[in-house]
Amino acid sequence: MQLTQFPTATGLTESFRSLLYLEKQERRAGHHTKVWSGPAAIEAYLEADPKGRLIQSLKSFLTSRSLTSTDIFGKLYRLEDLIARILREIRDCAESYFDTPIRSAVVGCPVCFVGANSEADNEFARSRLAAALKIAGFEDIRFELEPIGAAFHYQSTLDHEEVILIGDFGGGTSDFSLLKVGPARAGSRHLFGNSGVGIAGDAFDAKIVRNVVSPALGAGSEMRSVGKILPVPTWIYGNLERWHHVSFLKSRDTMNMLRNVEKQALAPEKIQALVHFIKEDLGYYLHQSVQRLKVALSAEPEADFQFDDGFVSLRKTVQRADFERWIQDELNAIESCVDGLLQQTGIDRREVDRVFLTGGSSFVPAVRRIFEARFGADRISAGHEFTSVARGLALRAQFPTECTP
Hints:
The chain has 405 residues and is α+β, with helices and mostly antiparallel strands. It is built from 13 helices and 18 strands.
């Protein structure tokens, strides 16, 4: 199985981050907006001074009927057009890498999109994603659930049949499929059921931001207004927790509001740091610091969170036990989702031969313990955590049939 290799400043990579970086560039006839996506977007963002607009996790907005477009440098961009810009770049890179035109795609989607409360919401999100794929130049589009994609990858390693539970942990969703797979089944499989919850790595990140970063930037502090002591507005920290929303905070109204808060704050240096953080669009740097902490806590019982851009400097030692306490509600939701799938399908946990975990959050020890407690550590498998879904979808493309019930 060969995956497309995407060029970066340091070599080739199989990963293509779904983000955009937009920068306003002045020309004689006026300004022009230049757009980068994927690895090139990260590199352009890191090199830029001052920063333009970094937009991340666009798929998490697909269920929102109110978010149809966003204003960037005075121009409205539809969500579908922004996503299409990323998809077009992926298609162009794949065509160049394999030296062949590409107009068909098998596209992974979660069991439950972020923000979906019904199957109608999921269908609405898929329809918007399909529209973006069409804009990007794809003509033949098929959707497949991401955990089913991972199942195709896992099945390719087997020489016998197994009942497997797939756990796919993305940035915004955790998805599960229960199937019987094996080499004799080729393009068909016996699907017992699927389940998903709109909780995963981004939610874990948010709890780190809430407990480590936001207090240092003024969350929970107070301000003096009209002779009264009032709490600093809390809504902005909710946006800070969703690090891909930081770019949306750079509006004139929000920045003016924060400067007024800074003048009245009892801890003005914290609000000043928050203003700097938003003005300089440091969401990606924050995300990197959070990721480093999560990786470290997956290996050690404690680790240091560190963030320093020369103006804002944050450092705090975090215990794994505290991190697990912060994400307990999310862990409970994942547990309930897994237990609900077993109950829904009528499959006893002892009948499950193997649990295959994939995605970045599958490394989190507290997540793995959910499955070890139910199925035993000896039945847990993993591998190609960041590419197993893509590998499986490529295999899935060889078979036009749907999964058998």
